[in-house]
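tool=predict chain=A
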Amino acid sequence: MNIMLFHSTCGLRPAVRAAADRLRAAGHEVWTPDLFDGRTFDTVEEGMAHNEEIGKDELLRRAVLAAAPYSERGLVYAGFSLGASIAQTLALGDDKARGLLLLHGTSDLAPNASVDDLPVQLHVAEPDPFETDDWLSAWYLQMRRAGADVEVYRYAGAGHLYTDPDLPDYDAEAAEATWRVALGFLEGL
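tool=predict ok
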């Protein structure tokens, strides 16, 4: 698979590069665009402040420019938290998208969003302060209505960015379970 992997609001941290390496070791081609021009952050709050400085429209513009040269290949869009919301937006707008792998985050859907059986897999903490139960229920129904084939995996007791070993949210067991399931998902596409 050709995978466009977007970083979280903490930036292109070593954990994102390690995830890309793991995906490459499984035989995938992976791109990890740096939407923050080299800036990284140790807390979600710092990253969110930087994200707001850049602005949502500019981040989406950067993401589209990063993905455009490869979209003809049929990308799997993937991302961590903020990157997951960006990946979701791009996947729903790309009729050649092969799949959507969301780690730690989702995004709003346009009311007229429509896909043709797009495989979607979401991995999220339970509870997650950014992905509440009510939000996830509504998101799931909207994705299904849009035509996506959705799987949701919840990890009780894990922190928001539980796959990043350098952050306090890290949960080794949940992270390994996530990668085991995600690699199976990608293998099946």
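The first strand starts at residue 2 and ends at 6. The beta strands are 2-6, 29-31, 75-80, 99-103, 119-126, 149-156.
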